[in-house]
Design the sequence.
């Protein structure tokens, strides 16, 4: 059990810490601008500064520290209409911008409104494979 936890801890990417404007913030893909610092709360999240504000997203899945992140794309942000949205498969129309919270989610324009779905299941990430246990047998 302890070995599994140590292996999982070694696979978690290190956070980035930025100190400026009298504050220290730690997280992932941090951005500092306009006297602010913001960081995403998981490695596949992202932040963007526009319109004198910083937005980060999407929210971290609850199981990301135990998950295999290698096949998960990093989110992206779009900015327009004085708004910023970060996530997956973003869409914009008539002053609305939205992004899905997970790669399988889709945002689209329906009757001049942007809608996204389906919602992300709480644990949508696949668990990482634990290192295979090796057992040695003696020749006796």
Sequence:
């Amino acid at each position: 059990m302890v070995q599994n936890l140590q292996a999982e801890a070694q696979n978690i990417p290190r956070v980035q810490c930025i100190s400026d404007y009298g504050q220290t913030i730690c997280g992932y893909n941090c951005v500092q601008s306009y006297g602010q610092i913001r960081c995403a709360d998981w490695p596949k999240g992202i932040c963007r500064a526009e319109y004198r504000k910083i937005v980060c997203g999407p929210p971290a899945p609850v199981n990301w520290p135990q998950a295999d992140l290698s096949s998960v794309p990093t989110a992206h942000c779009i900015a327009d209409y004085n708004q910023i949205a970060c996530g997956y498969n973003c869409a914009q129309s008539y002053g609305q911008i939205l992004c899905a919270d997970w790669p399988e989610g889709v945002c689209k324009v329906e009757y001049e409104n942007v809608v996204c779905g389906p919602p992300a299941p709480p644990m949508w990430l696949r668990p990482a494979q634990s290192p295979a246990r090796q057992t040695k047998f003696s020749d006796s």
User: Anything to note?
Assistant: Helices lie at 2-11. Residues 2-117 form one domain. Confidence is low (pLDDT under 50) at residues 1-7, 131-140.
